[in-house]
Structures are given as structure tokens and as C-alpha cells.
Write a structure and sequence with these properties.
Blueprint: E1 12-16, H1 20-26, H2 31-40, H3 42-52, E2 56-63, H4 71-94, E3 98-102, H5 110-121, E4 130-137, H6 139-153, H7 158-163, E5 175-178, E6 197-200, H8 210-222
Parallel strand pairs: 1-2, 1-5, 2-4, 3-4, 5-6
The structure holds 3-methylbut-3-enyl trihydrogen diphosphate (IPE) (2 copies) and magnesium ion.
One 3-methylbut-3-enyl trihydrogen diphosphate binds near residues 17, 18, 20 and 22.
Length: about 230
Amino acid sequence: MRSKSDTVMPRHIGIIMDGNGRWATKRLLPRSAGHRAGVKNITPVVTAALEAGVQCVSLYAFSAENKDRPKDEVDQLIDIIRKHIKPMTRGLIERGARVTFSGDTTYFPPDVQQQLADIVGENTDKTAQTVNILLNYSGRSELARAARLAAKSGEVTEAAIEANLYTAELPELDMIIRTGGEKRLSNFLLYQAAYSELFFTDTLWPDFDKSELKELIAEFGHRTRRFGRV
Ligand code: IPE
Ligand code: IPE
Ligand code: MG
């Protein structure tokens, strides 16, 4: 029998938390209610992943392209971040996790940027399990930025690009889960996804729970990863 310690555990799971709007529309609620339900769902799912022994979870919370939504929705999303980011991350930090952010956070209003800086300032243990939240994130922009920074400090090698990604200190992205039924990456961690195992579920993000997460992690354990070899 396989004991718990034999289970192949992904080191780093990326989650594309999609389907909040449809979740709300199905209930005849405004899309913002779906975003609030989505935020509420982060702590239980992430906690389950950390308890299972995953070292890092990257959460796609707000893409650079999401800024092109109607101004009302963008303003509501920023308000939700303003209201929930501290209480949500405090809980995770209290249970020993480290919180990082990826993306161009200079886009956000100064008070929100200050909150993000405060949260990062609370991180003490660099070796702790990490919750990496993607805010105003674009995979293409991240790559262009990494190339610019690499060029500034010398040769543009793969290693130099990797060292300048937001995720430089995080483990390999072993697994990507996208909820909400779409089968695409939508500019999520493009470089890091090179050899990720991909999982797509029709479950809308607010309905995605720890039992489904555990099923997908178990399925990950059964996949054969070849990395181009035989
Ligand atoms: C994902 O849910 C959350 C964000 C993109 C901020 P959506 O808002 O994309 O929900 P759907 O895809 O319209 O249902
Ligand atoms: C991806 O979802 C972004 C987040 C989950 C934050 P989208 O709803 O923005 O993706 P598309 O537009 O369907 O590709
Ligand atoms: Mg969507």
C-alpha cells in the first residue's frame, strides 16, 4: 500500500480562478457577488493545499487584461481587493504561510499598494509555504520585464530570465488547475507553464472545494511526466 508520504505531491500549484461572473449570473446576482463569493473560497482551498503539503500556490486573481472590463466591474474588483486582501492574507500568514504578489501592482490606488507592502512586510520566514497572488499580472509582460532586467545585468540567458521572473524564488510550477470550463491559459505564468500538468474543470470557482482539489492532486500523482525523455 502507498503511504501518504509516497504520494507524488505537486510542489507548486497554479490556480486560474475562473467562473465567478457565471456563478453570480446563474443566481440572478450581480457579477460582483460572484467575485465576493470567489474571494471567500480562497482560504479554504488554499489551506487544504498547504495542509496536503504543497509548497506553493499561485492564484490568478486579476489579470492585466481584466482592466479592459467595464469600469464598474474593475472598480468593484479593486474595492474587493481593498476590503479583503488583509483579512484573507492575515489568516494565511497566521498559519505560517508567506504571501507574495506577482504583477504590476503600481497600477493599484496608493492605499491598496500600501496594504500589499504591509502584507509583504509581515513575511519573515523565507522558507515557509508560499501563497503567491497574481494582481494585474500578464505572462507576456512578465517575460518582457524579465528580459529587460536580464539585459541590464548582462547576457540574456534562460537562467538570467528565470532569475528575473516574479516567481524566481518559487518552486517549479508542477500543476495548473483552471476552473470555469475554459481550456486556455489566458496569459497565466506562460514561461513557468512549460512542463506543467494541466487540469481543467467545469466547476465554477466559488463552487470548487477541497475534495475536488484533492481528487485533482491524486490524478496529478498518476500522470507520467517525461520532460521530453522516453
Ligand atoms: C474570474 O471570474 C475572476 C476574474 C477574472 C477577476 P470571471 O469574472 O472571469 O467569471 P466569468 O468567467 O465571467 O464567469
Ligand atoms: C482569467 O480569467 C483571469 C483570472 C481568472 C483572474 P478570464 O475570465 O479573464 O479569462 P478569459 O477572458 O476567459 O480568457
Ligand atoms: Mg472568466
